[in-house]
Predict the structure.
Amino acid sequence: MDIRIISAVISAGVALLIAVLNHFVITPIKEKKASKREKLKKLYAPLYSLVIARINISKAQSVIQKKIMLGTAKPSVWLNSDFMNNLFLEQSGYASDQLIEEWVKYSGSMKSLTTEAGARPFVVQLVKDYNKLKKDLKLAYSKDELETGIPDILKGVELLD
């Protein structure tokens, strides 16, 4: 056989192998990573920040009652349950099934407009999902938060529920 035919066959085989690898291996990995970044950007990072801010508002109350509580800043458009619920509803397509389930339970059991008790399962799931996404994306994350689901802001607080 002619050397030119052999080199053409080898070149075509290598090109085909590269195309197959790109289509079935590399592209799906890139798309999965992009999907995780999108989840983090659209839902988890804003919701996590909002929940931490609302926990900070009612931290003293949380310590006294030994429960995770989400406070509300009355004049603020952002630091209230309505804004958080709207954010969640608008971006719920990015949420895990467990987070949706916990949000439904939490939103159905709100007891007060100023301080919401019983938020622990929702907060724990959110914190775990948020840190898992960050870990998967090789971003800085809190190992303690990933394992326990308790935000670092409540570290050292004895919680009952």
User: Anything to note?
Assistant: The chain has one domain: 34-154. The first strand starts at residue 70 and ends at 71. The beta strands are 70-71, 115-116. Residues 34-154 form one domain.
